[in-house]
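Hi V.,

You were right to ask for the full record rather than a summary. Here it is.
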Amino acid sequence: MSSAHAPLVAMIHANSTASRLAQQAFEEAFPEARIWHLLDDRLLEDARATGGVRGELQRRMLRLIDHAFTGEADAVLLTCSAYGPVVEVARKLWDRPVDRPDEAVFRHVVADGFRRIAVLASVAPAVGPATEQIHELTARAGSGVEAQVVLCEDAARVGDVPEKVVSAFLPHLENGGFDAVVLAQYSLSPIAEPLGRALGLPVFSGPRAAARRMREQLTGEPASGAAS
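Predicted structure:
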């Protein structure tokens, strides 16, 4: 596929960490895609203040999506869980793919037969969208999976050293009877391997799953590799 005909994927980010992690995932799973990064580093702070992405904040997100499609993007990926509620509105307005950051990984976990999963977040605006999405998917699939959202804001205060973030989450997860863990934020994806080792459980993160789903939608060709 020549660069002139390679799909253009616009990513809308809340922070530069998500931008870097999403870029790495696409380099692995969808390297032929051209990436366009759009950053609104105030929207998450504003969402905390107003209780979610609604009203003017939703209109702001829709303007960013419109900017991406006006600029000839073939698809849009939102890399912040707090942006999730905008997706259903956007899909009614545009006939090109608009994906939630963790949609693909949640679909995988629901379909894979896990019974009790922990959904990890370190910022409060990610909790509502993650909860709504997992409940919607389990209801639609008729699955008996039980999901518990674990919010640990201390994990956002210890910096970006994976071992420190893992240590912040562990007291909330031990003896929880979980058989899998899902990381509800791209910024948490670096802890997937060390957390999995500490718990002895499969830990799934969103970036690579999202890149594979986007590849399938835009090229019709599945990407190889696991969903973790």
